[in-house]
Write a sequence for this structure.
C-alpha cells in the first residue's frame, strides 16, 4: 500500500522547499502560510474537503519508486533518519567510545551487514518459529503474546496516564492487525477488496519464503482470524474520545471482562506484576478478542503469530522478505 501522507488541510498551509536552510535561524522546511496553489477549486468542499484543500498538491506530488509514501512529514522523517544515522556511524568509527556507544555502533553495523543477513538465510528465524510451534496449550500461547517481539490480539503496555500525565499507567486495548484498520477488512468496495487480495498474496509470499507448510491455507485462516478481530474493534472516531477510552479497571474487573486471558500471569511476565489498576481503552474489543481467543483453534493462532513475527521483522531478514513487504 502506497500513500501520499498529508494531514487535513495542511498542503495549503505548508509549502515544502529545500531540505537544507541557508540560514539556521530560518525554518528548514518551507514557510508557514496560505498556499492557494495546493487547492483544487473544481472539487466541492462538501463532497471531499481534503481534495478541495490539497487536490492540486496531490496531483503534482509523485511517490518515488523506492518509497511507499510521500509528503512533508516523509521529508522530515528522512532528515531525522539521516541525522540518527550520522550519530550511530560516528559511534561506530569512534575508537574512544564508551560501552554504550560500542553497543550502538556494533548493533548498527550488524544491521547494515546485508551480506551476513543474506548468508544466514532463514536460519535466525528457526528458534523463534520453533518456540511458536512448541506452544501446546493456550497458557503457552499467552506467554508468547506478552513477550517482546510477538504479536498479540490485545496490546498491553505502559504510557502516560491520559487524565494524569505526570504519572505512567498500565494500558490494555485492541491490537494492531496486519492491515491499518478495521475498514480494510470489512468495507465492501473495490479499493478495500484490492487491499485484501494484496494482503493475501503477501502472506502467501512470506509463508513460502520461510518454508512454512500450506501457505495458501494459512493465508486464508490468518485473514479470517484478523477479520473476526476487526469486527469487534472500535472505529477510529471512537478511539479519539478520551472519555470513552479511559476505563480504569482492577484486575478482578479485567478478568471478568475477558476471562480467556490470564491477566495475572500476563502482567507478571510483562514486568507489570505490581500494577493494581489497568486502563482499558476499548473494553468491548478486549472482551471480543477474548472470546475469539477461546474459540479459534490453537493451530490458527500459532500460524498467525508466526506470520506476524516474520512480517514484523522483515527488515532483518533476507532481501526477498523485505521486497515482499515493500511490494505489499
Amino acid at each position: 500500500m502506497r500513500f501520499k501522507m498529508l494531514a487535513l488541510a495542511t498542503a495549503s498551509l505548508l509549502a515544502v522547499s529545500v531540505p537544507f536552510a541557508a540560514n539556521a535561524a530560518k525554518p528548514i522546511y518551507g514557510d508557514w502560510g496560505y498556499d492557494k496553489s495546493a487547492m483544487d477549486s473544481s472539487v466541492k468542499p462538501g463532497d471531499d474537503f481534503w481534495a478541495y484543500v490539497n487536490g492540486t498538491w496531490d496531483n503534482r506530488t509523485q511517490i518515488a519508486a523506492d518509497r511507499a509514501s510521500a509528503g512533508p512529514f516523509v521529508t522530515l522523517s528522512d532528515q531525522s533518519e539521516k541525522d540518527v544515522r550520522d550519530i550511530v556511524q560516528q559511534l561506530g568509527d569512534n575508537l574512544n567510545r564508551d560501552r554504550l556507544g560500542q553497543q550502538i555502533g556494533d548493533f548498527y553495523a550488524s544491521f547494515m551487514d546485508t551480506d551476513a543477513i543474506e548468508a544466514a538465510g532463514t536460519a535466525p528465524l528457526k528458534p523463534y518459529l520453533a518456540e511458536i510451534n512448541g506452544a501446546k496449550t493456550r497458557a503457552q500461547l499467552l506467554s508468547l503474546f506478552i513477550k517482546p517481539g510477538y504479536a498479540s490480539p490485545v496490546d498491553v503496555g505502559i504510557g502516560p496516564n491520559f487524565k494524569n500525565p505526570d504519572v505512567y499507567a498500565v494500558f490494555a486495548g485492541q491490537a494492531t492487525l496486519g492491515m491499518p484498520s478495521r475498514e480494510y477488512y470489512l468495507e465492501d468496495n473495490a479499493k478495500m477488496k484490492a487491499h485484501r487480495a494484496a494482503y493475501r498474496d503477501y502472506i502467501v509470499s512470506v509463508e513460502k519464503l520461510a518454508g512454512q507448510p500450506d501457505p495458501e491455507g494459512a493465508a486464508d485462516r490468518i485473514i479470517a482470524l484478523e477479520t473476526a478481530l476487526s469486527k469487534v474493534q472500535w472505529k477510529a472516531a471512537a478511539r479519539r474520545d478520551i472519555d470513552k477510552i479511559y476505563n480504569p479497571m482492577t484486575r478482578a474487573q479485567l478478568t471478568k471482562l475477558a476471562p480467556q486471558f490470564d491477566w495475572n500471569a500476563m502482567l507478571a511476565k510483562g514486568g507489570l506484576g505490581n500494577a493494581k489498576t489497568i486502563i482499558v481503552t476499548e473494553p468491548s474489543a478486549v472482551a471480543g478478542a477474548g472470546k475469539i481467543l477461546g474459540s479459534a483453534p490453537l493451530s490458527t493462532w500459532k500460524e498467525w503469530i508466526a506470520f506476524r513475527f516474520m512480517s514484523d521483522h522483515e527488515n532483518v531478514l533476507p532481501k526477498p522478505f523485505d521486497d515482499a513487504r515493500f511490494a505489499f
